[in-house]
Amino acid sequence: MPYALGIIGAGNMAEAIARGVLTKQLLRPSEIIAADTSPQRRELFTNELRIKAVEDNAAASDARMILLSVKPQHMAAALAAIAPVLSPKTLIVSIAAGISTAFIEKHLGGGKAWRVIRTMPNTPMLVGEGMAAMAAGKNATKDDLAAARKLFEAAADVIEVDEDKMDAVTAVSGSGPAYFFFLVEQMIRAATELGMTPEQAKLLATKTAAGAAKMLATSADPPDVLRRKVTSPGGTTEAAISHMTKQNWPQITVDAIKAAEQRGRELGS
Question: Which one, of 52, 70, 53, 162, lies nearest residue 107 by Cα?
Answer without folding.
Answer: 70
